[in-house]
């Protein structure tokens, strides 16, 4: 099911979609060497194959760790004869100096278009000499929608997929296959193929792929709750509400369910939202530590990721809470939705162009840093809504207590009648 052109690539539309960088390179026939980095099974090899298929250039695959300089020389000789070869070099972070020195002149003259693939951060792991001659593009775990699309294609394709087999994939088995692989399409297709080819037809002549079969073939058990279509979102909802409600044990329980399902992307997304929505200004250091823990978890992956995740879940659950930030921005957005908010005051308008002064733009603006304590009373909101208040501080943490005192002090000074 390897894509033969860019249109067949599943996911990574920020790179290969219409109007995006790799799509434009192929369309303009102006390919440059690149490094694709991201988790396994997310389409690095597929993108390289699709580029080759779309451009009709010869396509070769080597591994920087296991293939020798002689293998590179063979590719270079082919490039001299045919004009251009696209070389996918897997594990490019393992490229030693001898191979690197051999490759560099071929990258310079354009005979070899290098597409390096790595799961390591190229800014940290790849030699600057190679890095400076390539464009670096991140690839991301595929979404459930992406995985679902690829499964549909594999089940329907009679030439390269499983379309000739009388398969019946149960809905709950399909959901498990999509979720258990954690954005890794290769694992999903391998599991589906193994299940199809190792299951005997039933009396009706069809091969029924059930939840237990898929669980066995992808080696991930579905949680009991996951057999219900809404259960995945119920677990995530319970996870956030338990942290919001400061119940550490419940929060850890739902975290464990998500970890057991291998759903690191959902954990990372939800914890990021929780940190800012539910803890927010009551404890900004905890929010920052949560983001750091999430980044660490994504970098090291499961199962070790459970350690920083557990630490941050415990801290967030026990932290003071405040949702004043989300309430404030939602109140401001509600005012915008009403459509009646008036003109920006002239003194706040952009004055960095000729003629602005004639329009009154920027005139009478008072630069706060020219005044004591870097503050001066001045109207910033439009006249129609000049008395609007969106932020309502909460006293649940020392940081926001201090913000509240400052907010009320400034508001009082701002609205004091002029003498």
UniProtKB/TrEMBL annotation:
> What are the record keywords, sorted?
ATP-binding, Nucleotide-binding
Membrane spanning segments where? none
Has the keyword RNA-binding been applied to this entry?
no
Q: Domain AAA+ ATPase spans what residues?
A: 30-142
Gene Ontology MF term list: ATP binding; ATP hydrolysis activity; DNA binding; enzyme activator activity; single-stranded DNA helicase activity
SMART domains, per this entry? Answer: AAA (SM00382)
Task: Tell me the CDD domains matching this sequence.
Answer: AAA, HLD_clamp_RarA
GO biological process annotations for this chain's record?
A: DNA synthesis involved in DNA repair; DNA-templated DNA replication
Q: What PANTHER family does the entry give? A: ATPASE WRNIP1, WERNER HELICASE-INTERACTING PROTEIN 1 FAMILY MEMBER
**Entry similarity comment:** Belongs to the AAA ATPase family. RarA/MGS1/WRNIP1 subfamily.
Protein name, entry field: Replication-associated recombination protein A
Source organism of the structure: Limosilactobacillus mucosae DSM 13345
Q: What is the lineage of its organism?
A: Bacteria, Bacillati, Bacillota, Bacilli, Lactobacillales
């Amino acid at each position: 099911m390897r894509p033969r052109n860019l249109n067949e690539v599943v996911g990574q539309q920020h790179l290969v979609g219409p109007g995006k960088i790799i799509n434009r390179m192929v369309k303009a026939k102006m390919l440059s060497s690149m490094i694709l980095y991201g988790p396994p099974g997310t389409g690095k090899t597929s993108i390289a194959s699709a580029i080759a298929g779309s451009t009709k250039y010869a396509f070769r695959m080597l591994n920087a760790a296991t293939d020798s300089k002689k293998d590179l020389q063979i590719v270079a000789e082919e490039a001299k004869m045919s004009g251009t070869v696209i070389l996918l070099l897997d594990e490019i972070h393992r490229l030693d100096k001898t191979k690197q020195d051999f490759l560099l002149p071929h990258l310079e003259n354009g005979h070899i278009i290098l597409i390096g693939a790595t799961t390591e951060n190229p800014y940290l792991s790849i030699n600057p000499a190679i890095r400076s001659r390539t464009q670096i593009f991140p690839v991301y775990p595929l979404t459930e929608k992406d995985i679902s699309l690829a499964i549909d294609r594999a089940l329907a394709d009679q030439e390269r997929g499983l379309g000739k087999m009388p398969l019946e994939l149960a809905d709950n088995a399909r959901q498990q296959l999509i979720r258990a692989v954690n954005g890794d399409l290769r694992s999903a297709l391998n599991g589906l193929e193994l299940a199809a080819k190792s299951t005997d037809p039933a009396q009706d002549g069809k091969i029924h792929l059930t939840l237990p079969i898929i669980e066995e073939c992808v080696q991930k058990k579905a949680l009991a709750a996951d057999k219900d279509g809404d259960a995945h979102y119920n677990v995530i909802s319970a996870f956030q509400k338990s942290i919001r409600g400061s119940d550490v044990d419940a929060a850890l329980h739902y975290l464990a369910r998500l970890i057991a399902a291998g759903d690191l992307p959902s954990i990372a997304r939800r914890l990021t939202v929780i940190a800012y929505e539910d803890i927010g200004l009551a404890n900004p250091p905890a929010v920052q530590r949560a983001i750091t823990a999430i980044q660490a978890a994504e970098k090291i992956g499961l199962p070790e990721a459970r350690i920083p995740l557990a630490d941050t879940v415990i801290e967030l659950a026990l932290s003071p809470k405040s949702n004043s930030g989300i309430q404030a921005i939602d109140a401001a957005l509600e005012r915008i939705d009403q459509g009646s908010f008036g003109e920006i005051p002239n003194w706040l308008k952009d004055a960095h162009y000729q003629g602005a002064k004639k329009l009154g733009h920027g005139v009478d603006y008072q630069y706060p840093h020219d005044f004591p304590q870097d503050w001066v009373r001045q109207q910033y909101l439009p006249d129609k809504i000049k008395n609007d208040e969106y932020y309502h501080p909460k006293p649940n943490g020392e940081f926001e207590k201090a913000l509240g005192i400052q907010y009320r002090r400034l508001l009082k000074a701002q609205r004091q009648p002029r003498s």
